[in-house]
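Progress note, sequence design subtask.
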């Protein structure tokens, strides 16, 4: 199923259903494999068809996500998802079958998502900086670049700090985490934290018994956002998390946080790929130390 580049095709948009999970997972893997290979990067977003199916199942079955597919002639050719767990909406994985890219499919799906967002405070997403086509699409739809990001992975070399406590987050921590998130971001993300408590290893850092930072999904960068009152708190949090789990730390680092960036490099964390945070509507630059998830 191919057409000349730039030629439009007849595309319909509908809600995703469980029967679409396998097709969406296959397309997610193929789309991210193609764009990463073309630019010489590792496909850590959807490395296998199986991982794509797991992602698609979680998103399609989760009522807190608005999930849609694009189809032509009754055949699904793309999907995208909108995170509706907070007052700011987050555009999650957008993928189009590589055989029908550059034919307006992504634009139609994004237009449907933005129609869904009408009346919300704002919409955000994180896109691959090297993907000039998606950058152009999102900009033409009204998104603005807000933050250059680097996907970082690794295990810090330093030992944990004795003056702080780093432990797994519990449901009893949600109120304190909500207050801290509102202080840093200007809105709360408690719905995400509740989901992350179901197996994504969220952690908190405490000083004198008070929560001063948290990470929502420490080994899964696409779901991992973090906030802290100060850079020292964020460093302590990352050190404590790494010492507490066998998985590798993975998160999106805003590189304007130069001191934290240098610390990450000194600790041996590696740069995986560049990304860009984009936003439409209400945007408050975070007031303290933070890192965003793959949606915002």
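Output:
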């Amino acid at each position: 199923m191919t057409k000349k580049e730039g030629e439009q095709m007849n595309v319909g948009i509908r809600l995703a259903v469980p029967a679409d999970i396998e097709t969406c997972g296959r397309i997610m893997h193929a789309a991210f494999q193609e764009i990463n290979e073309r630019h010489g990067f590792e496909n850590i977003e959807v490395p296998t068809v199986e991982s794509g199916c797991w992602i698609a199942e979680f998103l399609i079955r989760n009522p807190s996500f608005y999930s849609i597919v694009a189809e032509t002639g009754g055949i699904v050719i793309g999907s995208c998802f909108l995170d509706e767990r907070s007052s700011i909406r987050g555009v999650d994985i957008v993928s189009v079958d590589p055989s029908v890219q550059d034919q307006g499919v992504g634009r139609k799906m994004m237009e449907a998502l933005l129609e869904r967002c009408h009346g919300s405070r704002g919409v955000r997403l994180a896109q691959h900086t090297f993907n000039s086509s998606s950058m152009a699409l999102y900009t033409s739809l009204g998104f603005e670049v807000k933050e250059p990001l680097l996907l970082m992975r690794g295990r810090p070399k330093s030992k944990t700090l004795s003056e702080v406590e780093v432990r797994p987050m519990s449901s009893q921590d949600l109120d304190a985490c909500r207050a801290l998130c509102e202080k840093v971001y200007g809105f709360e993300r408690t719905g995400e934290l509740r989901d992350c408590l179901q197996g994504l290893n969220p952690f908190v850092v405490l000083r004198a018994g008070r929560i001063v930072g948290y990470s929502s999904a420490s080994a899964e960068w696409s779901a991992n956002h973090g906030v802290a009152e100060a850079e020292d708190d964020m460093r302590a949090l990352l050190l404590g998390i790494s010492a507490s789990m066998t998985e590798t730390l993975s998160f999106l680092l805003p590189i304007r946080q130069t001191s934290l960036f240098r610390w990450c490099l000194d600790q041996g964390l590696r740069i995986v790929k560049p990304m860009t945070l984009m936003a439409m509507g209400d945007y408050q630059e975070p007031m303290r130390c933070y890192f965003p998830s793959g949606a915002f």
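Confidence is low (pLDDT under 50) at residues 1-6. Work on this subtask will continue into the next period as scheduled.
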